[in-house]
What does this fold into?
Amino acid sequence: MNLQGAVAVVTGASRGIGNAVAEELGRAGAKVVINYSGSQEPAEELAERINQTGGGGEAVAIQADVSDPNDAQRLIDQTVEQYGRVDILVNNAGINVDKPMKKMEVEDWDKVIQLDLNGCFYTVHAALPHMLEQELGSIVNMSSYIGEAGNVAQANYSAAKAGLLGFTKTAALELAQSNITVNAVCPGFIETDMTDAIPDDVKEKITKTIPMGRFGQPQDIANAVRFCIENEYMTGATLDINGGVYMRT
Ligand code: NAP
It folds into this structure.
């Protein structure tokens, strides 16, 4: 899809990977909805930056908790009110609540599944009627290499991220004839607030397992998301951007 003038919703775009994705799409000339949950200031700062940069990109920040189906619907409704359509949906919002299974409570499981897996369906469910009517759309789901490989203390997170891969393929099959592509991106370890929470000694151990010897940057993932959107013949694909760490698992 040509990004110039296309309308893109990026969930969880106030910080980290989503922030870099939204900025990249704005730079490419898209009209970007920067969704956030609580971090209004950074979301609005990014919108202002995109609006001032020129190159055709525009942006607006919209608060919505996409783990709530009503909020997800409102996010898409407000997008259509603002920009008249929705061409691109990047399901990026995600959290982790890491605990070994013997300590994991039902609430820990539900919280992660509710946002990281169900939230994706809620936004797709709301955006789909518009994409079907337009016969045009691109959906990119932010999975994780943990969804492919599994990881100790991440049963909830790996289940949600693996679920996204199955959802991506099924949605790709169902929507191909409507000219809607659906792809997934699986980042490895990327420097964001999510990985900042990892203790330094654990980070050092992780880094030793990464063939490229370092964590990735949000921009590495933003480039992959842009590739998914711009490549009109790619659907049902999973892009691994992980410095080679998956080969070591
Ligand atoms: P992050 O820095 O913690 O940022 C998370 C973003 O999600 C924030 O913008 C946050 O908004 C938003 N968010 C949280 N709960 C939300 C909700 N209920 N509704 C809407 N937005 C919500 O995380 P990140 O590292 O950039 O991760 C982004 C995505 O990439 C996640 O799906 C994550 O699982 C995936 N991923 C990350 C890595 C990594 O190494 N970092 C690796 C693989 C996959 P507020 O600021 O308003 O809270």
